[in-house]
């Protein structure tokens, strides 16, 4: 059982949805990310997705592309991403951390070396956007054998015929991409999302978290009413970007202000089912 | 070094090097389908549609008709007599009395001025078969963008071309050409504003507009089936060459030379000859300012295997697996990757890959203009620069074919600039 499995079990027992947050490792610098990571659980994040910066993020919109460029411009690297996780784990042994990104930096390090280092640092799961089930033997199967969750994306184009293949080697949770498009673009229709989540749940007992295009506490709450989790990425990354001055440095008190925004989103998610029940 | 690999590959491919890729779209370890889940069903659909089309004689007849009447094929196989004589003099001066007989495959004479149209024609006919109503493409130098805009105009489909802002600045005539042809050119500012960023942006468009949109990739890269499909549409170059050389000389050529960015013109020339072991195959990458300077686009000579834009292949990347920008005088070779089949041909040793600098390409560009009355594009000028080095070392009965895959009209401003001439 991984931290992810335990966290989703706890949330299920409490009858509430998970609030999943995304930030890019090293955006705009190492210290800021570390400060945010350490503050996220207190601000209400149940699961943390940490973006592994990549020069060519094909599935991401302008916000997350820009965050990766900022990070890389300030010396971010896979080793530093793993170091951030290791430092976070010094103070928090229960909040699951999922690394999210693209395959090349992992492949370049070598899958075996990467998996060893990720587990050592305290990573719980991986989301690798450009590895569909057709390429499972690359990383998904070795990661599962090494004890990491491999979280698969399901999308509106994943039909019922394809869904079993997509879910076959998925663990931890299923990430439903609520729109056809890139991160941070159009917002999903709650009604479509509900139907999609129900469709996926007919095929799996895993929790289903929904992301792409969720920007406000209200939208997050709406998603959290039907899904097991709501993922917010671009909106948090935008809140970070707003705090960066012309010199590329964060304004004083920036981490606290970003965490305050995260807190509002968290309240939206956590109050969702209570509000629906009343 | 890699004789063993060739042998094992041959066994699984029924003694042919032309049987690839496998069902997973792999050439050895290269190729594959490294795309986001949203695109995966589309890529599978495309694979199936292409298989059906390939087996349909009516589809092939449609292509043949358009290749003849619209593109102007077949393109001539031309004996470059004065270049041959020039290089024989060079050989004699060096005391070796050789000098290969050089032929140009004249794909620069195609409509739109390069080999790019061969592929665009095949893919747009496929897109229409699939019922797609909107075409998107990426372009670097603008040649593929122009060819795509051309076939879209011809068949009445809306066309959106993604082009990096850096490339838009250095390829203004092609930008205007695309607009004249009715295409919408969308500037890409993300990343460094070059071809790889244009490809990222086209993929983002495709992931957003999955229902009606066909992504018309311009080279032998991307997720399977693109590398195989684009190769198939370009193989007409090598098939014609084979037939023409048999008519002219009564035998196969001894060597083939082509330039490589993504590598579609080269794959088109090479593929029909892969199973003819007497034919030596040379791919010429852009060494830019010199491979040792780090400012180059030689993915095979100066890169390492990685995964980008849907396939595993040799890439220019740093120690962290981040993609590096290439540099070449030729915008058409300015891509940090290479088609996966080339990576495989490189590792198996079937083809040899060499590189040529900006300077050498510029010299060859001028030499060809003066000796043959043909202004080549800067891309095949790289292939030509290698020909001028190799041919003098070979005997006079050696038959060499170079793919003159594009004409140089688009490059005259850039070349003038490099030569310090103000127009």
Summarize the structure.
Helix content of chain A is 49%, strand content 13%.
Tell me about this structure.
The complex is a heterodimer of chains A (278) and B (423). In chain A, β1, α2 (30-43) and β2 form a beta-alpha-beta unit. The model of chain A has no long low-confidence stretch (mean pLDDT 95). Chain A has 278 residues and is an alpha/beta fold. Chain A is built from 12 helices and 9 strands. A 9-stranded parallel beta sheet of chain A has the order 5-4-3-2-1-9-8-7-6. Chain A starts with a helix and ends with a helix. In chain B, α5 (116-129) packs across α6 (143-155). Residues 1-12 of chain B have low confidence and may be disordered. In chain B, α6 links the parallel β5 (134-139) and β6 (159-164). Chain B has 17 helices and 14 strands. With 423 residues, chain B is an alpha/beta fold. Chain B is globular, with a radius of gyration of 20 Å.
């Amino acid at each position: 059982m991984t931290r992810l499995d335990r966290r989703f079990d706890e949330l299920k027992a409490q009858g509430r949805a998970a609030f999943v947050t995304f930030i890019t490792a090293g955006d705009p610098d190492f210290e800021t990310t570390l400060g945010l990571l350490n503050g996220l659980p207190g601000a209400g994040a149940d699961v943390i997705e940490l973006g592994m910066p990549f020069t060519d993020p094909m599935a991401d919109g302008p916000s997350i592309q820009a965050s990766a460029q900022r990070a890389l411009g300030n010396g971010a690297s896979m080793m530093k991403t793993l170091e951030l996780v290791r430092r976070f784990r010094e103070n928090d042994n229960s909040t699951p951390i999922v690394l999210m990104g693209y395959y090349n930096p992992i492949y370049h390090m070598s899958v075996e070396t990467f998996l060893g280092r990720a587990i050592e640092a305290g990573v719980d799961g991986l989301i690798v956007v450009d590895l569909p089930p057709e390429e499972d033997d690359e990383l998904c199967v070795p990661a599962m054998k090494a004890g990491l969750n491999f979280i698969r994306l399901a999308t509106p184009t994943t039909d019922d015929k394809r869904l079993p293949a997509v879910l076959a080697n998925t663990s931890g949770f299923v990430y439903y991409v609520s729109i056809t498009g890139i991160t941070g673009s159009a917002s999903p229709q709650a009604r479509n999302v509900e139907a999609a989540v129900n469709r996926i749940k007919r095929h799996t007992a895993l929790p289903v978290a929904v992301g792409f295009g969720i920007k406000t506490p209200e939208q997050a709450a709406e998603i959290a009413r039907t899904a097991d989790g709501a993922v917010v990425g671009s909106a948090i990354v935008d809140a970070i970007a707003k705090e960066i001055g012309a010199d590329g440095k964060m304004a004083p008190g920036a981490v606290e202000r970003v965490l305050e925004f995260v807190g509002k989103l968290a309240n939206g998610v956590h109050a969702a089912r209570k509000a629906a029940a009343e | 070094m890699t004789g063993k690999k060739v042998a094992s590959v041959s066994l699984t491919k029924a003694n042919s090097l032309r049987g690839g890729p496998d069902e997973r779209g792999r050439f050895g370890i290269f190729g594959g389908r490294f795309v986001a889940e949203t695109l995966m069903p589309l890529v599978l659909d495309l694979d199936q549609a292409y298989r059906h089309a390939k087996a349909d004689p009516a589809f092939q007849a449609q292509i043949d008709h358009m290749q003849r009447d619209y593109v102007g094929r077949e393109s001539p196989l031309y004996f470059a007599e004065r270049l041959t004589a020039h290089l024989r003099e060079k050989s004699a001066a060096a005391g070796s009395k050789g000098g290969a007989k050089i032929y140009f495959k004249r794909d620069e004479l195609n409509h739109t001025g390069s080999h790019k149209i061969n592929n665009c024609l095949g893919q747009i006919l496929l897109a229409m078969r699939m019922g797609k109503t909107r075409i998107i493409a990426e372009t670097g130098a603008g040649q593929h963008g122009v060819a795509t805009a051309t076939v879209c105009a011809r068949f009445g489909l809306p066309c959106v071309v993604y082009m990096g802002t850096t490339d838009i600045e250095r390829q203004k005539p092609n930008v205007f050409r695309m607009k004249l042809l009715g295409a919408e050119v969308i500037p890409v500012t993300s990343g460094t504003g070059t071809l790889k960023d244009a490809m990222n942006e086209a993929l983002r468009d495709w992931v957003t507009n999955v229902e009606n949109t066909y992504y018309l990739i311009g080279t032998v890269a991307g997720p399977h089936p693109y590398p195989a499909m684009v190769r198939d549409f370009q193989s007409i170059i090598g098939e014609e060459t084979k037939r023409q050389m048999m008519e002219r000389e009564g035998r196969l050529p001894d060597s083939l030379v082509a330039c490589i960015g993504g590598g579609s013109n080269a794959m088109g020339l090479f593929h029909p000859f892969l199973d003819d072991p007497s034919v030596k195959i040379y791919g010429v990458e852009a060494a830019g300012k010199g491979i040792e300077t780090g400012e180059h686009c030689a993915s095979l000579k100066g890169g390492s295997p990685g995964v980008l834009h849907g396939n595993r292949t040799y890439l220019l990347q740093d120690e962290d697996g981040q993609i590096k920008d290439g540099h070449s005088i030729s915008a058409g070779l300015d891509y940090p990757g290479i088609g996966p089949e080339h990576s495989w041909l490189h590792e198996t040793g079937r083809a040899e890959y060499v590189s040529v600098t900006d300077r050498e390409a510029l010299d060859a560009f001028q030499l060809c203009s003066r000796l043959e009355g043909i202004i080549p594009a800067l891309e095949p000028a790289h292939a030509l620069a290698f020909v001028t080095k190799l041919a003098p070392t070979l005997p006079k009965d050696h038959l060499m074919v170079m793919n003159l895959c594009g004409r140089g009209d688009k490059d005259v401003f850039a070349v003038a600039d490099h030569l310090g001439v103000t127009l």
